[in-house]
Amino acid sequence: MKVNTSKSKNAESFYIKQSYIDGNGKSTSRTIRKLGTLKELLIEHGPTRADVMEWAKEQARIETEKYELEKENHCIPVVFHPNRKIPHGERRLFQGGYLFLQSLYYELGLNRICRKIRDKHRYSYDLNAILSDLIYTRILEPGSKRSSFQTAKEFLEAPDYELHDIYRALSVLSEECDLIQSEVYKNSKAVTERNDSVLYYDCTNYYFEIEQEDGDLQFGKSKENRPNPIIQMGMFVDGDGIPLAFRLFPGKQNEQKSLKPLEKKVIEEFGCKRFIYCSDAGLASEDNRLFNHTQNRAYIVTQSIKKLPLEYRERALDKKGFRRLSDNRLVDLDQLTDDDYDELFYKEEPYSTKKTEQRLLITYSPKYAAYQKEIREKQVERAKAMLAGNNHKKTRKNPNDPARFIDRTAVTTDGEIADILYFLNEEKIAEEARYDGLYAVCTDLFDDAVGDILKVSEGRWQIEACFRIMKTDFEARPVYVQRKDRIRAHFLICFLALLFYRMLEKKLGGRYTCDELLDTLRKFAFADVQGQGFMPVYTSTKLTDELHQICGFETDFEFITKSKMKEIQKLSKQTSRLK
Predict the structure, then answer these.
(1) Are 402 and 421 within 8 A, CB to CB?
(2) Distant-in-sequence, close-in-space partners of 327: CB < 8 Å, separation ≥ 6
């Protein structure tokens, strides 16, 4: 090995490089170690460039000795036969991304939870192995339980249970669903700080590949507008978007009624006593607000301006009395300029109902107003095209349907209806425009700063992102299992997979997108080398370095012996490591 330098406009850098012959028989070199820039090295190894070079050559000599020693002690001769065929059925490529998920699994104590469950039930299969594999495969290659079983066979540690054991285990997981949720939450607080001072709540639904209602699988308003029976899920996440608890309820049930049972469970079983409840307007009924209007709890919920009583609605639409959030100065919305485009304005009004006194905050965003105006103008153009093409919809259930701007009137002749005239309702367009850029929040926090309240409300995007990840990336839908207990277990696995992803995301500091993280985990593969060990066949990146660092083991070596791989697997099952 030798010292190599490279000069740029502003610096001279020192490297240790090694020459070698590549696979094509050509001589080339690779960087073994970057020593630093001349300016950096002069401080410790100067005072002259010659002194730095002498030190660098000594480092190259040390690296050469290390390499020769490793070559002497650790090089493993591998013989390949160009004429020998690969045996049928011999697996040579293994999935290793699960190792990082396994690290979280044992940190969260799910192995201990499974032991606790085993003491209550009588079964012979390994629940710990089944549950862990179902979570890993839901993240790495989501699919049916049968396909998950096949995917688990590609792991470095193959399952020693059978497919029928999985279906039996689903019944036990369903029965212990509440216990698992509460225990995992308590254990997670030892792994990372949980921001449970704010809890976001929302509901979604999932469709089934069946055509008839069955138990809780009932026809209802689907988020995807599908004709299939659905089941609904209510879920709490904490202030950082990490899942806390979930509950399933029938597809026909009003989602407003789903809150109290789950929140009571969170209070009683999870030990969450003091928090701010935050939800959208659809889950902000007066009963739900009153339920959270206590000494220990408060609420911040969005409020539909259109559904306010007339007196309050007109106050909200009045463009006077607003203040700039950044400096609290009074402004008239009609006097705003282009310089105010990125600003946020607010005003607050006391809001009284028969049962509560609340604080109503109305905000106005010029940027959001421009966005809504642009969307509506496109919808108006589509409505005009519908009129021109004589294409009139009979139903306008979708609030964003352009047909909502089309109205009709009867044309009579001699007292009888002769024709139906369709026209563009300009008054309805103008009425919608009055609400552009406006947004309202209700709360019982009378002493908190407006900015703090709005910041909490804006965090609702995190639970929406959780549902998107669960549905899209983890393919929680469509649901193929049909027994009630297995359905519940299926969503428990999806919920735990989401929890794993969110916690891993937080450990990485939120520096990577969902696609980047999942793509890296899914491509983490190892090739078996003549039964003597494994060769990593993934691309080493900054993300893989960080994954190794937070999980306490390394796999980014040119070759990993079988004994070393067993050591790595053991490290991935440690129950304590650096947070």
Answers:
(1) no
(2) none
Beta strand 275-279 with 198-207 is parallel
User: Which string of b and e fits 212-248 if b means at least 16 CB within 10 Å?
Assistant: ebeebbeebebeeeeebbbbbbbbbbbbbbbbbbbbb
CA 346-349-351 angle, 5° bins: 135
Q: Which residues contact 357 (CB under 8 A, 6 or more apart)?
A: 350, 351, 444
pLDDT tens digits, 353-398:
888 899 999 999 999 999 999 999 999 999 999 888 877 765 555 7
Asked if 248 and 262 count as a contact pair (C-beta separation under 8 A), the reply is: no
Cα torsion through 234, 238, 241, 245, rounded to 10:
-40
pLDDT digits (tens, 9 = 90+) for 453-507: 999 999 999 999 999 999 999 988 767 777 889 999 999 999 999 999 999 999 9
540 token code pair = 């080493």
93-95, strands of its sheet edge to edge: 93-95, 525-528, 533-536, 560-561
110: closest CA among 138, 133, 137, 139? 133
Cα three-residue angle 464-467-468, rounded to 5 degrees: 85
The pTM for the full model equals 0.80
Q: What's the distance, Cα to Cα, between the start and end of the chain in Å?
A: 38
DSSP 217: B
